[in-house]
Design the sequence.
């Protein structure tokens, strides 16, 4: 009776979920680090030096940031390729899906479709961001980042990225939980509603945090526009110099 | 002073039905509206019978049990799948649109051949108890006793009436015709629980360990949300996914 078993469907399904989970954890951690600008320029400077390995090696190695960027890019590529197989692949499938969604107006089907749309947008937005990180790792700092955001008009990319990546990530985590560990038992409905509430709260939190950080980078970039290109020198070094 | 309860005038329902007879070359799909007065505790099943008895005897729709047990009267009610016999008109607006369940062969009007689809799924997934030396089994011998808890668990999944609502509510099944849907995956978890079935997880993996089976499910959850029997389909599919992932990887 059994057909020849192929392990690939199981592996691919696991890998898609695992790569998605790793990327979500990365982006959430990334948000806390990048929003260090809200604590001041010195705080953001310390965080950027930390990722360049200065506390460990005594001097900064921006290539470490490039390495992280490449790793993230590979993860994104793997996740995208695996997720693509779930996208509708013909006009007939799109027609069926739109007819179905229009009639049923089912919230969780709409959430999945929001992931399809944001995922498609991320195909373009993520490489744009990662290209800068990978090729110019030394240009991450309070002034360098702010100049890029304001003077190089990158705030448009970051604003779109902020919205799409967090919608994609928050829905993704909720769907991941339902996919592998959907609540069961008498409280299943209540627990699913709580999971969904947590999804909206997490999404709201990161959108607020990200927007506050982006606005801060824009303000610093605007104020620093006439000196764009100048690098930040921490207040402590200023004091030592004087 | 005691208030005298005043009964509201019954609503006039406008029921729009998607009519089509695929066996009649002259028939083309169209909406036909019927008006009738709403009665106390009226279900869609009662409304449809009234339409057929008093307005149009050619209207086709299925029913057997009238109690949500047979699964025959599944249809699309204002865009969402449900059972006509379990849907009270008072929970719907005055204008009600009915259509046949998609994804199944249309017999005519609201009648679809879910049986053909279910049989195909059942043969594909081999949804029956498998035993070695089944041919030599002594059918007069009493079956092994089963723990009541286990019997309850199997019964919970056995409550599926194969009405087809989970297939109609599933975006994946609508896009991919070979997807076995929640009804098929639920059957597999049911037989996996059954101690009389001697199949291993590897055997079940060979049946549902691909994109037409459990790994094709995109967790859209339409099955869970529109199952008229409130079966725990999402939890069952998640459990099966974990088992099959452990078996396959």
Sequence:
């Amino acid at each position: 009776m059994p057909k020849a078993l192929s392990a690939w469907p199981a592996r691919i399904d696991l890998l898609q979920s695992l790569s998605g989970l790793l990327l979500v954890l990365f982006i959430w951690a990334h948000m806390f680090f990048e929003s260090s600008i809200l604590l001041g320029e010195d705080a953001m400077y310390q965080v950027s030096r930390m990722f360049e390995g200065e506390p460990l090696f005594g001097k900064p190695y921006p290539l470490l940031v490039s390495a992280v960027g490449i790793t993230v890019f590979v993860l994104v590529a793997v996740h995208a390729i695996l997720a693509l197989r779930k996208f509708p692949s013909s006009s007939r499938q799109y027609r069926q899906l739109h007819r179905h969604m229009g009639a049923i107006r089912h919230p969780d089907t709409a959430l999945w479709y929001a992931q399809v749309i944001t995922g498609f947008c991320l195909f373009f937005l993520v490489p744009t961001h990662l290209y800068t990180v990978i090729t110019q790792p030394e240009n991450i700092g309070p002034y360098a980042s702010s100049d890029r955001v304001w003077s190089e008009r990158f705030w448009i990319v970051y604003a779109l990225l902020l919205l799409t990546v967090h919608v994609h990530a928050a829905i993704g985590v909720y769907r991941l939980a339902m996919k592998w560990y959907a609540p069961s038992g008498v409280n299943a409905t209540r627990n699913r509603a709580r999971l969904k509430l947590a999804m909206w709260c997490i999404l709201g939190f990161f959108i607020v945090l990200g927007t506050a950080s982006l606005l801060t980078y824009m303000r610093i970039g605007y104020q620093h526009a006439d000196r764009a290109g100048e690098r930040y020198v921490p207040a402590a070094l200023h004091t030592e110099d004087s | 002073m005691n208030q005298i309860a005043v009964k509201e005038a019954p609503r006039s329902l406008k029921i729009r039905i998607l009519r089509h007879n695929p066996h009649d070359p002259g028939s083309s799909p169209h909406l036909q509206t019927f008006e009738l007065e709403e009665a106390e505790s009226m279900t869609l099943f009662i409304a449809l019978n009234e339409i057929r008895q008093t307005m149009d005897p050619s209207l086709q729709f299925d029913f057997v049990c009238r109690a949500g047990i047979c699964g025959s009267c599944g249809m699309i009610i204002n865009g969402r799948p449900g059972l006509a016999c379990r849907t009270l008109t008072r929970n719907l607006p005055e204008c009600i649109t009915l259509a046949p369940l998609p994804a199944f062969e249309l017999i005519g009007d609201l009648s679809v051949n879910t049986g053909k689809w279910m049989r195909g799924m059942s043969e594909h997934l081999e949804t029956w108890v498998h035993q070695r030396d089944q041919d030599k089994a002594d059918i007069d011998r009493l079956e092994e006793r089963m723990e009541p808890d286990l019997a309850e668990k199997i019964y919970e999944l056995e409550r599926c009436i194969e009405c087809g609502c989970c297939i109609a509510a599933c975006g994946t099944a609508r896009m991919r015709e070979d997807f076995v849907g929640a009804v098929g995956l639920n059957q597999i978890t049911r037989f996996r629980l059954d101690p009389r079935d001697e199949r291993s997880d590897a055997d079940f993996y060979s049946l549902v360990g691909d994109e037409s089976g459990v790994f094709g499910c995109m967790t859209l959850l339409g099955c869970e949300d529109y199952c008229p029997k409130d079966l725990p389909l999402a939890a069952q599919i998640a459990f099966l996914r974990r088992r099959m992932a452990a078996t396959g990887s």
User: Anything to note?
Assistant: Chain B has two domains: 12-112, 126-130+146-248. The longest strand of chain B covers residues 12-19.
